[in-house]
Amino acid sequence: MPRPKKCRKVGCLPAVKGMRPMGIPTKDCGEPIVMTVDEYETIRLMDFEDLTQAQCAEKMEVARTTVTAIYIRARKKIARALVEARLLMVEGGEFILCHRERCCKRELQHMEQKEEDKMKIAVTYENGNVFGHFGHTEAFKLYDVENKEIVKSEVVDTQGNGHGGLVGFLKDRGVDTLICGGLGAGAKNALLQAGIVFYGGVNGNVDDAVTSFLKGELNYNPNEECNHHHHGEEDGHHYTCGHGHQHTCAHH
What's the confidence (pLDDT) of residue 182? Predict the structure, then answer.
């Protein structure tokens, strides 16, 4: 029986699904070159974040030799895409999504709130329930929380904001925590950059969800991906593992 492959830890998903050459019709670009998400992560960590191979291996929780092999494959694919004027897609691979260290720390702080802490929680809202698609929500229910008690709540219309605009909408209202259904790669990265901790994969009544969260009992999925696929939407990207399941980590 073959030894199962170990999922590589990835700090964030790509903001786009891929890139194509300018000035050449897509139909003339030939077969796309596919870079896996874990290959992308080695490029992000070593070429963009300037980490060493050893540091990259530590963050991805794999051996240094494994990182070296992944990195070489990734660089080769980028070179081919540039030289051969090919489409470069980013999808699939053996990986598991982990919010960056700062986000993990903030989640821990949220779950271990001090009594004097204040929070502002937003929940995607539709007819009293958690709406399943962050990028298309038409309303949020906002909760002001003090000492783990809800002191105020209100439903606010998103005023036509969508996708990237929703993150700014929440930030302008002082939101530091989001509870929602599905959300995509672009939305996740934007929320991370805005310092908003998010809990995806939640459904059911919004008030019940917030109550469960404040008790530390919220049932959520940190790897939840948006299942609504619309052409050109920044947060509608969907990533699959090497086994074809709709998750960010292969199931063995």
Answer: 86
